[in-house]
Amino acid sequence: MARPQALLVLENFIGGKFVPCSSYIDSYNPSTGDVYCRVPDSGKEEVEAAVKAAKDAFPVWSSKSPSERSQILNKLADLIEHDLEAFAQAESKDQGKTITFARTVDIPRAVHNFRFFASSILHHVTECTEMPTMGCVHYTSRAPVGVAGLISPWNLPLYLLTWKIAPAIACGNTVVAKPSEMTSVTAWMMCKLLEKAGVPPGVVNVVFGTGAKAGEALVCHPDVPLISFTGSTLTAQRITERSAPHCKRLSLELGGKNPAIIFDDADLSHCIPTTVRSSFANQGEICLCTSRIFVQRGIYSEFLKRFVAEAKKWKTGNPSDPTVDVGALISKEHLEKVRNYVKKAQAEGARVLCGEGVDPLALPPGNQKGYFMLPTVIAEVKDESCCMQEEIFGPVTCVVAFDTEEEVIKRANGVKYGLAATVWSGNVGRVHRVAHRLQSGLVWTNCWLVRDLNLPFGGMKASGIGREGAKDSYEFFTEVKTITIKH
What long-range pairs does 233-238 form, CB within 8 A, spacing at least 24? Predict the structure, then answer.
């Protein structure tokens, strides 16, 4: 009889050391449904220790030159890249995503985040103006803020954690980070590399645990002047309320209900495979995924037929299989939530054209208890349906017809979110016109997820507050001061 595999037990990383916790949370392998890891259930005591370590490290770290900090970030990037395969394997197992996605997207982007901010921190400039008649010169200076509280989500664990840590420490801040309790392993692995990279003790502290305990303690701590959060709009509302008494600086990157608008002159040979990818990549668990597809009526039938056929080609199964396109969803509860959206759509009279409840899902024996779902396409759904209004965050997309440009802009904007949108058309004037009128922080035309990290990232309306990127992150993680010299 095979011996049960020992559970991986994580520890908090505080002041340059791994510190055990008095209580732990079970963490599941989404592809098998089995507990495989124990994560610290941290609270006020652990957060207090981490904040103290970060405060103690701040004077020395903030006094280092941008060049010195840049060298350390580059070294950390090199170390993660050296262990890329181990990180990818861990991310796939912990989150349920395919090994291919972890290898080609998650971990390479985490490496790039450190390298990007290691470079960009060297090239910022400050402002200067003269008032000759007054005999005055004005200039600005920027300085790190202090201890940054960073709260990252479970869908792109190391990718989005490093998107926050890299600019925060590049600017000279120290950090207390709280990854999702459901996907903590790669953050813990990164901590093992910090000393070798030359990161001084206390500059990066990682406290594991739930939002209700560890997250709340971090948000409410009076010595943490800024919070950067990526996650749900509901949690962001709580963060805003709890941080208000301290007048904290907030960066909130939240949910989306992203439209794709496909005009009748779109190149469907490029549009269809890209829109399938934008709908179902990472099991649809990306805030930028397409969940509402508006197709001009003249090509609606053709698009639907070809789109469904392409979606059915996507293979769902064991994430460690390199031929698999769709891995497991994050949890049993989340899978049930996504399935319920499909049931609600059917109850409202919509048609499920492929996927959940329509096509058989064949899984290997070892994955029978995993949290899997086929790519699902829904048609004939009303704009007011919850499937068209609420963020589903799974492999589900809705396809509806439209007639005119004016009509589709109004319908695309008819949700509380405003994160991202895609527009497909061969008419250059039209794509500019529509892009300007869409209430979205990002608009891609004839492509999806093409990113320049120099440019602002973030959403409008309930999709967030603030932006992230080279200039925006620099401004968020620094305080500006205006100095006037009379001569």
Answer: 233/391, 233/417, 233/462, 233/463, 235/211, 236/464, 236/465
H or E, element range at 291? strand 290-296
Residues noted as catalytic: 253, 287
Cα distance between residue 202 and residue 324, in whole Å: 40
Beta bridge partners of 288: none
**Cβ atoms 464, 419 nearer than 8 A:** yes
Contact assessment for residue 383 and residue 410, using Cβ atoms and an 8 Å cutoff: no
Q: What is the pLDDT of residues 199-248, one digit of tens each?
A: 999 999 999 999 999 999 999 999 999 999 999 999 999 999 999 999 99
CA of 399: how far to CAs of 128, 259, 323, 328, 381, in Å? 52, 10, 27, 24, 8
The tokens describing 186, both together, are 């790669």
Question: Do residues 418 and 463 lie in contact, with contact meaning Cβ atoms separated by under 8 Å?
Answer: yes
Q: Where are the alpha helices (DSSP H) in 173-249?
A: 185-197, 216-220, 233-243
Neighbours of 106 (CB within 10 A): 26
The structure's pTM equals 0.97
pLDDT in tens, 264-280: 999 999 999 999 999 99
